[in-house]
Amino acid sequence: MSGWGNISPRLLDYNDDLDGLGMRSTLYKYQRRSIAAMMQKELDLRDVPDPLFILLKTMDMRQFYVQPGTMVVLQECPMVAPCRGGILCEELG
């Protein structure tokens, strides 16, 4: 799977014809950018800040994080494993 880490730079190099990747059609620039972003998201194994927590600041600029659904308040945003997979839906053009 290590070879897939090199696909994003190739997708973003619009002069690269992507020979050897098994593409059956020519991709538009916006499609290449979308696929590069998806590949990066799939291959990056680092944890991300929990998106359910909202950053808030007090009047003296101290910050804290609130989860509105449960009203949990924390001084640091918890980290979670990123979501893998998804659906690519774009308009043509």
Give a topology summary.
Layout: H1 7-12, H2 29-43, E1 48-49, E2 54-57, E3 63-67, E4 72-74, E5 79-80
Antiparallel strand pairs: 1-5, 2-3, 3-4
Detailed description of the structure:
This protein has 93 residues and is α+β, with helices and mostly antiparallel strands. The protein has two domains: 1-44, no CATH class; 47-93, no CATH class. It has two helices and five strands, in the order ααβββββ. The strands form two sheets. A three-stranded antiparallel beta sheet has the order 2-3-4, with no helix packed on it. A hairpin with a 5-residue loop joins β2 (54-57) and β3 (63-67). The model has no long low-confidence stretch (mean pLDDT 87).
Beta-strand content: 15-25%
Number of domains: 2
Per DSSP, the total helix count is: 2
Specify the biggest β-sheet.
3 strands, antiparallel
| pLDDT averaged over residues | 87
Sheet with the most strands: spatial strand order: 2-3-4
In brief, what are we looking at here?
By secondary structure, this protein is of the alpha+beta class. It has two helices and five strands, in the order ααβββββ. The chain has two domains: 1-44, no CATH class; 47-93, no CATH class.
Tags for this model:
93 residues; alpha+beta; 2 domains; 5 strands
